[in-house]
Amino acid sequence: MESQQDPPQNSPLFPFTPESMMQNPLEPQGLHDDDIDWVNLFSGQNNFLGDAKAIMECTSSSSSSSSCALMAEKSDKEKGKGGRLKKTTQPRFAFQTRSADDILDDGYRWRKYGQKTVKNSIHPRSYYRCTHHTCNVKKQVQRLSKDTTIVVTTYEGIHNHPCEKLMETLTPLLKQMQFLSRLGSTNNAAPSSLL
């Protein structure tokens, strides 16, 4: 096999993103557009719980659903010292945005649950949780002390529900796609002599 080239470690585009999340965009992906049910995905009918990597492996492999459930359960906890189980850390993603506003609209609804002063910075760090009842995603918002025009937003975890703003925008399109798919399936059953 050919050796794969890793992305540069000091990438200016995603300075706080872990290397494991950085992928070469030219590499083939495990899922193809044909494998994804976009209507169900955006309408929130799929319940994506657990690790995204486990979901990708389950959808790309031909393993049974029970082994996928076991894999998702094992990914939530690891063995610690003394045989105890400890939870794994959630993935973190950080974005730097040049903005005059501290609160940036990302399409999700957030509840502020804390704020604290940060050493060597005049700007406090704010802590938020996603308001969806099954979602445990948190975010931290803070201004950079070196450049106060930049807001650093760090997300911890992956949302297990669709984005509210995205759904408001896509709902008419999804309804039209469902209508056209039903219309197409009824037209395929009709005789073609009418043409």
Task: Quickly describe the structure.
With 195 residues, this protein is of the alpha+beta class. It has helices spanning 38-43, 52-60, 65-76, 164-189, and strands spanning 77-79, 85-87, 92-98, 110-116, 125-130, 138-143, 150-156.
What characteristics describe this protein?
single chain, 195 residues, alpha+beta, five-stranded antiparallel β-sheet, 20% strand
List the helices and strands and how they pair.
Layout: H1 38-43, H2 52-60, H3 65-76, E1 77-79, E2 85-87, E3 92-98, E4 110-116, E5 125-130, E6 138-143, E7 150-156, H4 164-189
Antiparallel strand pairs: 1-2, 3-7, 4-5, 5-6, 6-7
Helix pairs in contact: 2-3
Textual characterization of the structure:
There is one protein chain. With 195 residues, the protein is α+β, with helices and mostly antiparallel strands. The protein has two domains: 31-88, no CATH class; 90-180, WRKY domain (N-terminal domain of TfIIb), CATH 2.20.25. Helix content is 27%, strand content 20%. The chain contains four helices and seven strands. The chain has helices spanning 38-43, 52-60, 65-76, 164-189, and strands at residues 77-79, 85-87, 92-98, 110-116, 125-130, 138-143, 150-156. A five-stranded antiparallel beta sheet has the order 3-7-6-5-4, with no helix packed on it. A hairpin with a 6-residue loop joins β6 (138-143) and β7. The protein is flat and about 65 Å long. The N and C termini lie far apart (53 Å). Residues 7-15, 20-31 and 43-77 have low confidence and may be disordered.
